[in-house]
Amino acid sequence: MRTRRLLVGLVGVLVVLTACSSSNDGGSSSGPPSGTTDLTVFAAASLTGAFTQIAKDFEAADPGTKVTYDFGSSGDLAPQIESEGTADVFASASESYMDDVQQKVGVSGRSDFAQNQLVIITPPDNPGGIQSMRDLTNPGVQVVLAAPGVPVGDYARQALKAAGIEDQVLANVVSNEDDDASLVAKITADEADAAIVYVSDVTSVVAPQVNAVPVPAAVNVVATYPIAVVTGTAHPDLAQAYVDYVTGPSGQATLKEYGFLPPPAT
Amino acid sequence: MATRPSPARTPVVVAILATIGAAFVALPLVALLIRAPWSELSNELAASGAWTAFRLSIEVSLLSAGLSLLLGAPIGWVLARARIPARSLLRAVVIMPLVLPPVVGGVALLSSLGRSGVLGRWLDSLGIQLTFTTAGAVLATTFVSIPLVILAVEAGLRSLDPRYEQAAAAMGASTGYALRRVTLPMIRPQLIAGLALAWARALGEFGATITFAGNLAGRTQTLPLAVYQARQTDPGAAVLTSLLLVALSLIVLVAMRDRIFAR
């Protein structure tokens, strides 16, 4: 009889564990502490470093404000904004996901605030012997890319296609990762030979742990990052102030520090 | 053998809480059924590579369940029967994957069997690589499902009267013969339950697999990983692929019902 009880317990444990596959929680939504205003910003994972710094500066300049981020792949964030409506500001790594939110939810004050480019990274000892983008086609090279639908993954495929080596390189892909942070982790852990990430991913912390190989300018993709206030926000003025801060001189200086290029001249 | 408790009036509080609880679990599953784009069923499943993931999931989960049984049952035997020091500690260690977040299991596997891991470094020099391979996916799922076999077998052996084995030994049966002909047949229900639970757990494994084995269609992208990826590019396919997993899990759990609860 003990056996049966134990097995019943096991079923319980099994069900619980199966249910909690990893996933980032939607952030936000807990009521703001009295006296402060909580601003929820959904931002592309590649902005993690720069935006964390920007939040500190923004909060210091406006003490009543607390900025909460939900960082993730833009392709994950857009549908979350559409279905949950908890975001005050959206900063996307791709125009298309911003277009999506603009159509389905509506945005205001939209503007491009940064650009990014692609770079190939390898472990420091470069086990795959990658000297140029073309070397990614060498047999046996283990390449990791972001999955299709993740902006950096789509941009990488565009660049490979422009170089005419998409099929050969895709044949060397051993894993389609969820975002650029996972790609960097695979390379710093020496689990793969090469990854295509954003220039901004090679931060001062990451730089010593990887070897960077440029993507030729002729095929490199320029990713443009739009930011906007999400329609329906409870704090439209504060959200607009945050957007203005990011597009303003201090925000731009921080983004530059983190490896981003300035937005396209209009 | 157990006598069924006579039907009692269900206390109102119990009935209310049970209804809320059941709805809490059932509602999301029903919502999947409602939200599924049924009209595009065949297109969606074909285009999203769900069948490739389905076949791989069956392969990986069965191999993993088999490996869990092969290695887990002996551990269960040792925990139940062998005279060993620090039994509780050993049990805690081998059961650990049950309570660890699977992603931690994946990181631990990378540190041990990854290309530059403690053992992986050495395997790599022999030309053996486990990360990004189907074998790696099997190992990752086995890591999380093996405790279920261990616990089931240990529980089975503990509830078994040792006099059966003593009698076999007294009649001249060798240890191996007694194990094969007496012990194993008597704990067959627990072996099957452990195997089925391990299989079900392997089928749903996500965190350890994506962390250790990566995500590549046809090689390491099992159904849960396919759902995770489709959610970005094709939410409809994500819902349909999820339903495929729900259906499979339902079949396993219903089929196991008699093994676990009845008799």
Structure overview:
- The complex is a heterodimer of chains A (266) and B (263).
- Chain A has two domains: 36-115 and 224-257, D-Maltodextrin-Binding Protein, domain 2 (3-Layer(aba) Sandwich); 118-214, Periplasmic binding protein-like II (D-Maltodextrin-Binding Protein, domain 2), CATH 3.40.190.10.
- Chain A has nine helices and ten strands.
- Chain A has helices spanning 2-19, 48-61, 74-84, 95-104, 151-162, 166-172, 180-188, 236-247, 249-257, and strands at residues 37-44, 65-72, 89-91, 107-116, 118-122, 143-146, 173-177, 194-198, 211-214, 223-230.
- The model of chain A is unreliable at 14-33 (pLDDT under 50).
- In chain A, the strands form two sheets. Chain A has a five-stranded mixed sheet with strand order 2-1-3-10-4. Chain A has a five-stranded mixed sheet with strand order 7-6-8-5-9, sandwiched between helices.
- Chain B has 263 residues and is an all-alpha fold.
- The radius of gyration of chain B is 22 Å and the shape is globular.
- The termini of chain B are close together.
- The model of chain B has no long low-confidence stretch (mean pLDDT 88).
- The chains are: A alpha/beta (266), B mainly alpha (263).
- The A-B interface holds A 1-4, 6-8, 10-11, 13-14, 17-18, 20-22, 73, 75-76, 79, 142, 144, 147-150, 173-178, 186, 189-192 and B 2, 98-99, 101-103, 110, 114-116, 131-132, 144, 148, 151-152, 155-156, 158-159, 190, 193, 197, 200-201, 204, 206-207, 210, 213-217, 219-221, 224, 228-229, 231-233, 235, 249, 253, 260-261.
Secondary-structure class of chain B: mainly alpha
**Helix count of chain A?**
9
Please describe the biggest sheet of chain A, giving its number of strands, its sense, and whether it closes into a barrel. Answer: 5 strands, mixed
Arithmetic mean pLDDT of chain B: 88
> The CATH topology of the domain at 51-222 in chain B is what?
MetI-like fold
Radius of gyration of chain B: 22 Å
Distance between the termini of chain A: 76 Å
What is the rounded distance between the termini of chain B? Answer: 6 Å
Helix and strand sequence of chain B:
HHHHHHHHHHHHH
